[in-house]
């Protein structure tokens, strides 16, 4: 049973009060705005043309592992830290069972979701796997968070557990269930190459899009690939997503990899940015904070807050419309070691949730939205000494602003005169705390050298901000 019988009466009263509160919330306009591709094809906008900066978190096993109370804790934490998208698996496996013991499917058949009459949490016979997902999605909606749903994780399809016919029926079930929910984004795929079961992925994408053309849809690919490798010209694909992956420069040498970019996730964004037709792009899975380099060796060096900041600024200044953060324990909602534990977690999800990087991502979002976000265009000609690897600099500009990111805080030179005005106001913006340091006023012509605060080292990252005076 899901609850102690002696508390049944209290739970029923509580649920009734919650239902009344929910009705009141909806009546007051709780629905989130529809999202769409911006007019220039590079960004995501709300229906009233306001910029939507995607700041995502990977809560992949949220639906399976967390209780209602834990869900509230997690979503509130992410809301307070500025996250507005949670990427989550609907079906991790065809054997999926949630924390309350409810199975998702009848006999592991994705074409036959296990659905009961009613959705009363106080009644164990009514509250099922899908009711719990409904609860999480609506709770996220209350907190202003969109849910990016992976219908079925890629390995299940690759293993032959989902035929094209089954995929079509299951996709129709999901699309019909959530087409009127305001905070949905669809992530077809799930850590898989599109070439693995290509027909199934095309069927799922097409079916969802035909039933639900209200919500955006993309494809979450395998590491070191992009959705554009297989689906860029598909009508159902609204934007591209890359998974730059979890390997270091030294590890990313396999002949089996499509691209040998190592940690240079900005290169994936560059590739997608040049494609026609123009579509927005984002790094939906860079290296996670607290996870070992290369994933599988728990004794290997682990990615830090410095690393996840670098991936974020590199990708956004290269032209991405946002960024997805990840943390080892949180992405798998680790509660204790079991057969499903992966990648050497060291603490519970509730501790991992407090990792330093998670509180620093909001500064990237705030910086970009403080400027004319839709007007930014990557322009590396601004930098006269671009560097390589960790010394590489990324630059973007709008009519009145230049942004240059340095991960190491080394000295560099900028080619001036590429934004409006005879003079510019210069300042340093810290990705670590969001604070600014005024440098001064400079003539907007010729070459200008800049010296970031402190001595150069990995993680002494700064954004040079030049604004027309």
Automatic annotation (TrEMBL):
Domain Apiosidase-like catalytic, chain residue ranges per copy: 38-374
InterPro entries: Apiosidase-like_cat_dom (IPR025277), Collagen-bd_put (IPR024749), GH (IPR017853)
Domain Putative collagen-binding: 377-467
Entry keyword Hydrolase: yes
Highest taxon listed in the record's lineage: Bacteria
SUPFAM superfamilies xref list: (Trans)glycosidases (SSF51445)
Gene3D superfamilies the UniProt entry points to: Glycosidases
Signal peptide: 1-24
Annotated GO MF terms: hydrolase activity
Keyword tRNA-binding on entry: no
UniProt keyword list: Hydrolase, Signal
UniProt name for this protein: Glycoside hydrolase family 140 protein
């Amino acid at each position: 049973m899901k609850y102690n019988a002696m508390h049944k009466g209290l739970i029923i009263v509580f649920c009734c009060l919650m239902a009344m509160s929910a009705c009141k919330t909806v009546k007051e306009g709780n629905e989130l705005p529809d999202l769409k591709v911006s007019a220039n094809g590079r960004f995501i906008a709300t229906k009233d043309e306001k910029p939507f900066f995607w700041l995502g978190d990977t809560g992949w096993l949220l639906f399976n592992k967390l209780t209602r109370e834990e869900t509230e804790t997690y979503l509130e934490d992410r809301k307070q830290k500025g996250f507005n998208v949670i990427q989550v698996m609907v079906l991790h496996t065809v054997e999926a069972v949630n924390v309350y013991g409810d199975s998702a499917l009848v006999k592991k058949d994705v074409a036959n979701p296990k659905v009961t009459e009613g959705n009363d949490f106080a009644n164990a016979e009514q509250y099922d796997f899908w009711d719990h997902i409904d609860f999480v999605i609506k709770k996220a909606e209350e907190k202003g968070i969109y849910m990016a749903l992976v219908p079925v994780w890629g390995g299940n399809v690759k293993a032959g557990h989902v035929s094209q016919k089954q995929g079509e029926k299951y996709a129709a079930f999901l699309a019909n269930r959530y087409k009127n929910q305001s905070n949905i984004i669809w992530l077809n795929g799930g850590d898989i190459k599109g070439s693995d079961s290509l027909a199934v992925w095309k069927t799922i994408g097409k079916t969802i899009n035909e039933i639900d053309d209200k919500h955006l849809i993309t494809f979450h690919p395998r590491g070191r690939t992009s959705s554009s490798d297989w689906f860029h010209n598909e009508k159902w694909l609204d934007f591209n997503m890359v998974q730059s992956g979890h390997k270091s420069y030294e590890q990313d040498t396999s002949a089996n990899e499509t691209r040998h970019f190592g940690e240079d996730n900005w290169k994936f964004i560059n590739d997608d940015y040049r494609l026609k037709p123009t579509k927005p792009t984002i790094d939906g899975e860079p290296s996670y904070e607290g996870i070992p380099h290369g994933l599988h060796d728990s004794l290997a060096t682990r990615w830090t807050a410095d690393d996840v900041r670098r991936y974020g600024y590199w990708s956004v200044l290269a032209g991405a419309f946002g960024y997805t953060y990840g943390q080892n324990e949180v992405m798998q909602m680790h509660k204790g070691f079991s057969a499903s534990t992966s990648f050497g977690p060291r603490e519970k999800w509730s501790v991992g949730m407090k990792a330093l990087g998670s509180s620093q991502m909001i500064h990237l979002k705030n910086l970009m939205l403080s400027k004319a976000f839709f007007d930014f265009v990557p322009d590396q000609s601004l930098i006269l000494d671009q560097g390589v690897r960790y010394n590489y600099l990324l630059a973007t500009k709008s009519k009145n602003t230049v942004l240059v990111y340095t991960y190491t805080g080394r000295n560099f030179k900028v080619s001036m005169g590429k934004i409006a005005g005879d003079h510019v106001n210069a300042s340093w913006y810290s990705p670590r705390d969001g604070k600014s340091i005024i440098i001064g006023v400079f003539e907007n012509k010729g070459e200008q050298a800049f010296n970031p605060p402190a001595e150069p080292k990995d993680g002494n990252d700064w954004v040079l901000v030049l604004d027309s005076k």
